[in-house]
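dumping the sequnces here before i forget
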Amino acid sequence: MGALVYFSSVSDNTHRFVQRLGLPDLGIPVHRIPLRPADGFLTVDEPYVLMAPTYGGGNEGGAVPRQVRRFLGDVDNRSLIRGVIAAGNTNFGAAYCIAGDIISAKCQVPYLYAFELLGTAEDAERVRDGLGRFWQRQSLISA
Amino acid sequence: MSNYLEIGEKNTMAPTGKLKLIDRVTAINWNRLQDEKDLEVWDRLVGNFWLPEKVPVSNDIQSWHTLNEAERLMTTRVFTGLTLLDTIQGTVGAVSLIPDALTPHEEAVYTNIAFMESVHAKSYSSIFSTLISTKEIDEAFAWSESNPQLQRKAEIVLDYYRGDDPLKRKVASTMLESFLFYSGFYAPMYWSSRAKLTNTADLIRLIIRDEAVHGYYIGYKYQKGLQQVTTAEQEELKAYTFELLFELYENEVEYTDALYGELGLSEDVKAFLRYNANKALMNLGYEALFPKEDTAVNPAILAALSPNADENHDFFSGSGSSYVIGKAVATQDDDWDF
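..and the predicted 3d for all of it:
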């Protein structure tokens, strides 16, 4: 079973979504990318799905939070990513959840899911079930 | 003594009835941040800055004349309503948040928000003057001044802006930014989905983008403030938020019927309202209220708002045989190491 790695800013929006998923109950470990460089660097040693908010603009610069870019800049971390989930706001038009597109294209991994802001109850259910099935399939493929 | 209010301290009206501003001013030092969100949002707002003169609304003149009389009337009234809300937010709303600010950087962000709301209000005027005769504009403004739902909406929000509770003020402000505009925003998205008034829609999309950042930021500051009050007060504020939402929603439903009823669009607009009401609540840190089946926005409207929203980013509900790899996107970030 793989893990979930996520980033959430001080607004904690993504953090709260992750908490509602109850992933540890499914045996899916959860790791949070530190808020600031001074808080240390996260290194993972198991396959994971990455979840990140999109920083909105309309121009794509800075759409992927800097801390996420730093995390993926580490070759070992990057080699273990298996998929991406992005959060955003449709108000940003074409830039809606574009962090997912960018990470997916950069790392050549599937873009699994997009949700808005804190996510709805349906989003949480979809992601929880989906991640469980995703890792089951992955273990079949690699077995 | 700090120039800024301590959390929980109330900013009250001066006896003159004027909002009391801070007593002293300290020079703002952007190198000493108490809340990193302030700089992040400031940078985002500055990066998103725009002016209506850049959008060629005059290219919509021909399209405007393809609308029938009822459609033109609805559209004109929508824009007068939006003008009123942006005027409130620019000259009263965002300004009323300044005395409650906990840091000088937060004050600066509110001044930016206030200015952009004035840019928005001016944008509607530029749409008016481009597409509509002076007589029609005057009639539409007269309508908006006598429409009870629009006046009620303005009254409810203004009451909270004049009130003495900084957190309630932020709730009202977030409701305005993230919910109350959308009965109006529906119309340009509707026209855009029918390939009409597309330049006007482009301009409105810039406003919609700004409101997202405003609602996010004010909602975030509300949540920060909420952490500093007692559990009982938190419960009271939550109850207040939902009560206010219901009060505003009922009024929005009537307003929607008045604007769109004749064109048979009311139910479509109401789904859009509920979808945005949920987002306003989320900006305030609360879970969505309206269930999924009540917030199913017409896919054409959603696509007009965000062309990406209808793309298949739901691998989990699919068969699992295929998935989407994101399109390569040119980023301007130079700190990707690969």
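The domain at 36-310 of chain B is CATH 1.10.620.20 (Ribonucleotide Reductase, subunit A).
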